[in-house]
Amino acid sequence: MFIRSEVYVPVELNNQINTMIKEKSYSKLKKLAADNKTADLLVNLNEKTRCKDTSDAQGGTSRSLNYATGLEGKTFGVEMRKQNFIYWKVVKIYR
């Protein structure tokens, strides 16, 4: 099985963040936020907010990639880290 990370990782980013927002997982969002201002913005998003216009990878390494995504008209940076052969996880969200 071959998964193209340039396609899979942004989809996984969107899915993970959208799920946290939809489920109002405020503690997870706060933990991932790079600072208090970002945390405040994230926990105050409407539960129907979804990631928009997620970029291709904007740099990183074979184990960590950086993306930009839009939430309610604001651009957020997102760091994704490779957890194993196929699974990538959001590890930081910043403004």
How much helicity do the residues have? Answer: 25-40%
Based on secondary structure, the structural category is: alpha+beta
Determine the number of helices (DSSP H or I, runs of at least 4 residues). 3
Strand order of the largest sheet: 1-2-3
Over all CA atoms, what is the radius of gyration? 13 Å
Shape descriptor: globular
β-sheet strand percentage: 25-35%
**How far apart lie the N and C ends?**
35 Å
Q: What is the N-to-C succession of helices and strands? A: HHHEEE
Main sheet record: 3 strands, antiparallel
Low-confidence stretches: none
Number of strands: 3
Mean pLDDT: 94
How many structural domains can be distinguished in the coordinates? 1
Write up what this structure looks like.
- The chain has one domain (5-56, 65-94).
- Helix 2 (26-32) packs antiparallel against helix 3 (36-43).
- The radius of gyration is 13 Å and the shape is globular.
- It has 95 residues and is α+β, with helices and mostly antiparallel strands.
- The mean pLDDT is 94.
- A 3-stranded antiparallel sheet has the order 1-2-3.
- The relative contact order is 0.23.
- The protein starts with a helix and ends with a strand.
- The chain has 3 helices and 3 strands; from the N terminus they run αααβββ.
- The longest helix has 18 residues, at 5-22.
Features:
alpha+beta, 95 residues, 3 strands, three-stranded antiparallel beta sheet, single chain
Topology overview:
Elements: H1 5-22, H2 26-32, H3 36-43, E1 64-71, E2 74-82, E3 88-94
Antiparallel strand pairs: 1-2, 2-3
Helix pairs in contact: 2-3
